[in-house]
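Re: that chain you flagged

S.,

Sorry for the slow reply, it's been a week of failed gels. I finally had a moment to sit down with the sequence you sent. For the record, here it is as I used it:
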Amino acid sequence: MTDACLFCQLYREGDHVNATDGFVAIRDIDPRAPVHLLVIPERHVETFKDVSAFAEHETKAMLDFIAETAAHEGLDSYRVAVNCGPDAGQTVYHLHWHVLGGRRLGPEG
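Prediction finished late last night. Pasting the C-alpha cells below so you have them in one place:
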C-alpha cells in the first residue's frame, strides 16, 4: 500500500459497507445509480491491465466478493464495471470495481 493513494487509505480507514480479507466495499461519493458501490482490493494494483498480479485464488475471491456485496445490498439486477485508463474514465489509479443498481440502468448508468 502507498500512503499517497486515496483508495489505499479508504481500504484502511473508509466507511465500509462490506468487507472480507483483502477486499472492501464503500459507497461512491458521486453515485450514478441509487446503489453505487466501489469494491477495492487491499493490494495496490493500478489498473485492470495489471489484474494478473493477483493469484488465481485472489481473482476468484475478488469476483465472489463483488457478487456477495451486490447481494448484501439487496441487488438481484446490477451492473459491474471497471474503468481502465484515462480515456475510459479512470481517475483513481488503484484497481476498483463499480457495482451499480437500484433502478433500470441505461447505457451510461
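What I noticed first: Residues 6-101 form a domain with the HIT family, subunit A fold (CATH 3.30.428.10).

Talk soon,
D.
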